[in-house]
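To the structural biology subgroup,

Please find below the input and predicted structure for lytic cellulose monooxygenase (C4-dehydrogenating), which we are adding to the shared reference set this quarter. The sequence is reproduced verbatim from the submission form. If anyone notices a discrepancy with their own records, reply to this email rather than editing the shared folder directly, so we keep one authoritative version.
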Amino acid sequence: DLLTPDHRCGRDAWKPSPWTGIVDVIAGDTVGFGIETTWDSVTHIGPGLAYLAKKPVGVELSQWDGDGDWVKIDYKGPITKKTTTVSMTTPPGQYLLRVEQIYPSLGNESQFYVNCAQINIIGPGGGTPTDFARFPGTYKVDEAALSLPVGEEHVVGNDVRWEHGFLPYVPPGPPVWTG
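Predicted structure (tokenized):
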């Protein structure tokens, strides 16, 4: 649901998680997410996005619910890669890394696959993001980026595919910050 905290990191995943570890990431490194199911990949087409949110001063990362400013660090579409690169100029510190894959459909029936990881970015920093997102709040239920554009739908078996390969698609949220 775009209008609840579940849109931050997944269903009930926005709640603080003291039992989850924090992974060190060197600025400039590529990071990825795996899928632990009986399927080994995302089987539908749709845009993939990645965001970072730096934890507030004076709060333990494991106790923070992610309510804050998120900077978009990557966008991939139409075929989602499972990796993203953290900019060399990302300010060092502890962050939530949010990955999302959107399965756009006709009308307001799109599906969002969202997850977060706790990371500690190590590096020289020097960059200053300026455009931010908030979850919930950034995406609007009726915005064009969350629905299949008219004329794009193409049914293959039971699966809807994009007829023109995302050519007219503009992803939701702020622009990608590259450092």
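Summary notes: Residues 5-162 form a domain with the Coagulation Factor XIII; Chain A, domain 1 fold (CATH 2.70.50.70). The mean pLDDT is 82.

Regards,
Lab coordination
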